[in-house]
Write a structure and sequence with these properties.
197 residues, alpha/beta, Rossmann fold, 2 domains, six-stranded parallel beta sheet, globular
Length: 197
């Protein structure tokens, strides 16, 4: 049996500021009345305060722009990305993401973005079924910012230590299993992983 640890990092909301990228795109290209907000400043993941027609127009733009996913601002610091890069050298590090399945170039752009952040040959998986994926790879650790993803990983994968990156404004105080750790920073997750390996 391999002693390598399997570690899962969600991207949007943990490593990348998708919310800022998307709301800024809407502001600049769709309607100047839409106020750009950063991850952690939004009140729900689905941005339900924005008109559906604007949201659809934004997604159409994302599909047309061949570099959009590659140019998102990072949420993680340079030091945190170096720690992830080091973990990636000697462990099985995966980046499962629910990024717009079927959107042209999303896998390539996501890999390029992680490479720009210093991750060599990142293992990116486009999937909404994060619990099933964690079970498939027998994940040891996983971090996500959505309570439902964390709950799925916890219940569907045996033995995965699951972490919720907690954003207070989101009110993500949903019921979660007691074993799930709520943390305020990516560094805390990296501390725990590094101690365990």
């Amino acid at each position: 049996m391999s002693t390598l640890k399997a570690i899962l990092f969600d991207i949007d909301g943990v490593l990348a500021d998708w919310v800022w990228g998307f709301t800024n795109l809407l502001h600049e290209r769709i309607s100047g009345l839409i106020e750009p907000v950063h991850t952690g400043e939004q009140f729900d993941w689905n941005l339900t305060h924005i008109d559906k027609a604007y949201m659809n127009a934004g997604w159409n733009l994302v599909q047309e722009i061949p570099w959009w996913w590659r140019n998102l601002d990072p949420l993680a610091t340079e030091a945190e990305f170096k720690r992830i890069a080091n973990l990636n050298l000697n462990n099985r590090v995966y980046f499962p993401t629910a990024r717009a399945e079927g959107t042209p170039h999303v896998l390539r752009q996501t890999r390029q973005w992680l490479e720009i952040m210093g991750i060599v040959n990142p293992s990116v998986v486009i999937t909404k079924k994060k619990g099933e994926f964690a079970n498939l790879v027998q994940a040891d650790f996983a971090i996500d910012d959505k309570p439902e993803n964390v709950a799925c990983i916890h219940w569907l994968s045996e033995g995965t230590q699951t972490y919720l990156l907690d954003y207070p404004k989101l009110g993500n105080k949903d019921f979660l299993p007691k074993a799930v750790k709520r943390i305020a920073s990516l560094s805390k997750f990296l501390d725990d992983v590094e101690v365990a390996i």
